[in-house]
Amino acid sequence: MQRALAASLLTKGATIISNPGYSNDDKAATEIIKNLGAEILISNGKMTVKSDGVVPVTDTINCGESGLSIRMFTPIVALSDKEITIEGKGSLLNRPMEFFDVFFPRLGVKVKSNNGRLPLKIKGPLQPKYIEVDGSLSSQFITGLLMSYAYSLNTVKEDFNEKDADPVVVIKVNELKSKPYVDLTLDVMKRFGMNVPENRNYEEFIFTKPSSGFSQQVSKEIEFTVESDWSGAAFLLVAGAVAGPITVRGLDLTSPQGDKKIIDALMEANAGLAVEAKGIKVRPAKMTSFEFDATECPDLFPPLVALASCCKGVTKIKGVHRLANKESDRAAALKEEFGKMGVSIDLTGDEMLVHGNVQLKGAQVHSHHDHRIAMATAVAALKADGDTVIENAESINKSYPDFFWHLKKLGADVSLPGRKFKV
Q1: Binning pLDDT at 50, 70 and 90, where does residue 158 land?
Q2: Are 300 and 293 a contacting pair, CB within 8 Å?
Q3: In the chain, pLDDT over 90 holds for what percent of residues?
Q4: What does pTM read for this prediction?
Q5: Catalytically active residues, by annotation
Q6: Selecting from 3.90.180.10, 3.65.10.10, 3.40.50.300, 3.30.70.260, what CATH number does the domain 230-422 have?
Q7: Edge-to-edge strands of the sheet including 39-43?
Q8: Do domains 2-213 and 230-422 have the same CATH topology?
């Protein structure tokens, strides 16, 4: 949804978005494109975005707590020659933003940060040039560069002199992590008819300028349907494996979303799983420990821990280094909160060892203001003896506002005593 909003801003004309999201992150992205000049209309469950490109109507942009929004939209904001301050709140205030301090000056963008943190003050316009970046930090920075380069290279510059321009522009990326998320970005760009770069093994992204030089975009209308989210669905699928049976419909098995690998994990754990035309059916079974590399899909760590807790043996999950700069320090948060429920977790280098097959016990846990920790403990609570009370469980609104309602619809006993969710 956030990528579709960014692409609709960068595509002149009207975009009709079906199945629009309304999580807090989606709302933040919607407000951002409105402040960058887009007009938003909502009718009959669809969102229409009308855009004439990046034309800021304010000098301040707020990204809420969305890590994707801050990293994707900051290069897009930098397409303007207006000085704009970019802000956030909550955990976003502590996330590192040195990337922009380092690379923006190389692209002609003036930038001033708060010692590598928010707020950022930037002034473009961004000038696409050859650049070499560290892809191990986050694929979301790459997403922002890909979209901003595509827009800038297809937009007329009054002072453009074609004979001085290079025919191609290259973004070189070292050690790119979370490649599936970049695949998702490129897929959205293609569906919007943007200038999609050639992807050379995720090491070079090569943009070719239009043959006529810079050409003003032609206004057009696009219809775009937002895919169902595998990241959120992973929790439901694991819930089915530990306390089902349930059927989840609407997921695209051919999606470039990396988190669809939850299916692989369920199969490795010998979960009761059947993929059918009408949906994915999951039921409880005698599950065994498994090994899983989550380096490319770190958002799966929380549902994987909930799954591993109910598997016999010690499950090994690789990619712990990807968890430090999330809404919480997820490795530490998972170890602490699942420990309260009787699950022992060891952190050894880049691996997490989950000692499963224990009798989970209800406990008072805390989300650490992290939506995925809240959902993971809720899924584990379905298998626990006694009640589990989740403090700050409203953090689910960041990505999946209907999560507890969906659990309740599936038969879980969910209540809200004094702003604490009890499962």
Answers
A1: very low
A2: no
A3: 87
A4: 0.92
A5: 299
A6: 3.65.10.10
A7: 39-43, 46-51, 13-18, 220-225
A8: yes
Which tokens belong to 47? 């969102």
What single-letter amino acid sits at 203?
E
pLDDT the model gives residue 69: 97
Helices (H) and strands (E) in the chain, counts: 12, 22
**Which CATH architecture describes the domain 2-213?**
Alpha-beta prism (3.65)
Q: What pLDDT is recorded for position 209?
A: 78
- Which residues are bridge partners to 206 per DSSP? 170, 198
- Give the single-character DSSP code of 415: B
pLDDT at position 214 is: 45
The ranges assigned to domains in the chain are 2-213, 230-422
Distance CA 72, CA 76 (A): 7
CA distance 199 to 49: 29
Q: What is the mean pLDDT of residues 180-188?
A: 96
| 328 Cβ contact partners less than 8 Å away, ≥ 6 residues apart | 91, 368, 369, 370, 373
Dump the DSSP string for 186-222. Answer: HHHHHHTT--PPEEETTTEEEEE--TTSS-PPPPEEE
What does DSSP assign to residue 298? G
Q: What mean pLDDT value characterizes the chain?
A: 93
